[in-house]
Design brief:
- This protein has helices at residues 34-41, 98-110, 120-127, 133-144, 148-158, 161-184, 198-223, 237-245, 288-303, 319-327, 371-386, 399-422, 427-445, 451-459; strands at 12-15, 22-30, 42-44, 57-62, 69-78, 89-96, 114-115, 225-230, 263-269, 272-278, 306-312, 333-338, 360-362.
- The protein is an alpha/beta fold.
- It folds into 3 domains: 3-131, Probable tRNA modification gtpase trme, domain 1 (Gyrase A, domain 2, 2-Layer Sandwich), CATH 3.30.1360; 139-218 and 398-446, tRNA modification GTPase MnmE domain 2 (Four Helix Bundle (Hemerythrin (Met), subunit A), Up-down Bundle); 225-386, P-loop containing nucleotide triphosphate hydrolases (Rossmann fold).
- The strands form 2 sheets. A 7-stranded mixed sheet has the order 3-4-5-6-2-1-7. A 6-stranded mixed sheet has the order 9-10-8-11-12-13, sandwiched between helices.
- It is flat.
- Guanosine-5'-triphosphate binds next to helix 8.
Length: 465
């Protein structure tokens, strides 16, 4: 924890609800001057002796310079340190008029507060030891969640489920260091040989791998299953995209090469979020615009968690279809035989569509036939990808956390490799490497972290959180 946190001299203010017209808008003030600002600005309807702690008071916001009433609403004074930021906090709930809220914020600034930076309230909460960095990252994930699973993961991390797991790995590293370092300080002849560290290293690596798996699952749950619709031109990709979206989003024409750019939209299937991408049809052609579109299709395919490979089922499969199937050979693929309303001529069990274990669906993007089955296949894939965690592993390590655990796992793997090759290693060397590991693990929760990392994390936040 960082002690500079306490009693930071600045009192900060921000609108905590989105800018725009709404029923209610909330302004938040945090810092030592918050109570006096409230007293100067807010006149309770019923005269009381000061503002009670943690009790909403109805009254009027009055501009202290002009004496004019700006609005009426509720004021809440929360005395630190038992607050989000650890400081004295004031929350004003006023009418959700952008102008009223702006004028009230200006008054508060004139009374001595300064506008908060992005995520500054949460940054203060972190610096005051109210949250660790895993929890701080969960705050923004909760706000940005786009599916019930993403909410569930963020909520669990806010309750420190993931922090506990990261700390448990750190504790094992500390145990190993204690064992190793006991031997370093003594003459080798005086002490029994160091206990074989390999089993503990393996346990540490196993837990790191579980954390990484949780991170991968959480990433898909957070941002949705990236699903790319690919196929040769004119097979009905855009029609299928629109049908799955229930919206007339992408242009559809009978002219091959209609879609040039990738188009992305989010859908929910059985509570699982999918980011659906329509792409330009893959073929070899001279048109430079189309070529650029196809380059983008290949980029999208590289990022895909799932590919919907669309085949015109009413016509025989040709070389262009085979090229598409080859382009997504190493991905998870669902083959969609489209235009079934025209009569299917392809044989879905043809091995050119991939192994028989690969899911297939016959559909008509224009009549909607078969789309239910296709959606069910997609949802089952999403469930498998997002629900396959061991029950005791928490999802949602951030990209930053994944990078740190990956770096730490590289250290442990290489140590295990050298034990396997050489039989033993000097405790000093193992200890040095494990100290590096510990530093990486502690950066995840923020026990050891520098300001630049904090800047990067809190940049993602909105002002007011
Ligand atoms: N009969 C029938 N026609 C379809 C079906 N799906 C699409 N079409 C028609 O096929 C033509 C091409 O459809 P698109 O959705 O633009 O095809 P695309 O694969 O996106 O084509 P590009 O963007 O050029 O790669 C249009 O005339 C659609 O109306 C279907 O299920 N049945
Ligand atoms: Mg198209």
């Amino acid at each position: 924890m960082n002690s500079q946190a306490f009693h930071s001299p600045d009192t900060i203010v921000a609108l905590s609800t989105p800018r725009g017209y709404s029923g209610v808008g909330v302004i938040r003030v945090s810092g030592s001057r918050a109570p006096e600002i409230l007293a100067a600005l807010f006149k309770p309807a019923i005269c009381t002796d000061g503002f009670p702690d943690r009790r909403a008071v109805y009254g009027r916001v009055i501009d202290p310079e002009t004496g004019r009433v700006l609005d009426d609403g509720l004021a809440l004074l929360l005395r630190g340190p038992a607050t989000y930021t650890g400081e004295d906090v004031v929350e004003l709930s006023l009418h959700g008029s952008p102008m009223v809220l702006e004028l009230a914020v200006r008054c508060i600034i004139r009374l001595g507060a300064r506008p908060a930076e992005r995520g500054e309230f949460t940054r203060r909460a972190f610096l005051a030891g109210k949250l660790d960095l895993v929890q701080a990252e969960a705050v923004i994930d909760l706000i940005e969640a786009t599916s019930p699973a993403a909410v569930e993961d963020a909520r669990a991390r806010l309750d420190r489920s993931l922090s506990h797991q990261v700390e448990a790995v750190s504790d094992l590293v500390v145990d190993l260091l204690a064992e190793l370092e006991a031997h370093i300080d003594f003459d080798e002849d005086d002490l029994e040989p160091v206990t074989n560290p390999v089993p503990l290293l393996e346990e540490i690596l196993g837990r790191m791998e579980a954390l990484l798996e949780g991170g991968r699952v959480g990433r898909i749950r957070r941002r949705g299953v990236r699903t790319v619709i690919a196929g040769k031109p004119n097979v009905g990709k855009s029609t299928l995209f629109n049908a799955l979206l229930h919206a007339d989003r992408a242009i559809v024409t009978p002219i091959p090469g209609t879609t040039r750019d990738t188009i992305e939209e989010r859908i929910l299937l059985e509570g699982i979020s999918f980011v659906l991408t329509d792409t330009a049809g893959i073929r070899n052609g001279p048109d430079p615009v189309e070529k650029e579109g196809i380059r983008r299709t290949h980029n999208a395919l590289e990022q895909a968690d799932l590919v919907l490979a669309v085949i015109d089922g009413s016509a025989a499969i040709d070389e262009e279809d085979e090229r598409v199937l080859a382009a997504c050979a190493d991905r998870d693929v669902v083959v969609a035989f489209n235009k079934m309303d025209l009569g299917l001529v392809v044989d879905p069990s043809d091995m050119r569509f991939g192994p028989l274990s690969r899911p297939r669906a016959s559909v008509s993007a224009t009549t909607g036939e078969g789309l239910d089955t296709l959606s069910k296949i997609m949802a089952a894939f999403g469930r498998e990808r997002t629900g396959c965690l061991q029950s005791d592993i928490s999802a949602g390590l951030s990209s930053r956390g994944i990078e740190l655990v990956e770096a730490a796992a590289v250290v442990v793997r290489s140590l295990l490799g050298s034990f396997a090759a050489e039989g033993s290693r000097r405790p000093e060397i193992v200890s040095l490497e494990m100290r590096r590991c510990l530093k990486l693990l502690r950066e995840i929760t923020g026990e050891e972290v520098d300001d630049k990392v904090l800047d990067r994390i809190f940049e993602r936040f909105c002002v007011g959180k």
